[in-house]
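Repro:
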Amino acid sequence: MIRVLLPLALMGSGLAAGGLMISALGGAPLLLALSTKDYIPVHQFLVTRFDPFMPIALLTGLAADVALAATAPNAAARGLAAAGAALLVAAVAVSITKNVPINKWVSRLDPQRPPADWAAVDPRMRWRNWNLVRTALAVLALLCNAALVSTVV
């Protein structure tokens, strides 16, 4: 069972951490540098490229870590898998409660007619900050899964 679950955990958490790292290192700085008129369509475009990829990657890693936490052959492996699962649950929670609502709001905006109070409601810094949180959580989960390898070989 571990021969199937561990690669799935590494793949899911690795793809999630990588996708989030791309948005942290490139996407967020790009979005922050754009004018409002350019930001809205670029954000709308990028979101459609990352969904459903990111949820699938996060949930694959999470499901594999949960299964490993229950079935791994030793306490160290079970502990690392449980830690990885907890970190991915936290990343999913941040995504669902913080980033997804911003993505949905921006997806409904007309780039030619941003809200009149744009300076007050511009979500870019909030989105970037929460994205950094979930990126750190996913990278830590990947590190747990990488460390898990040494406990079972």
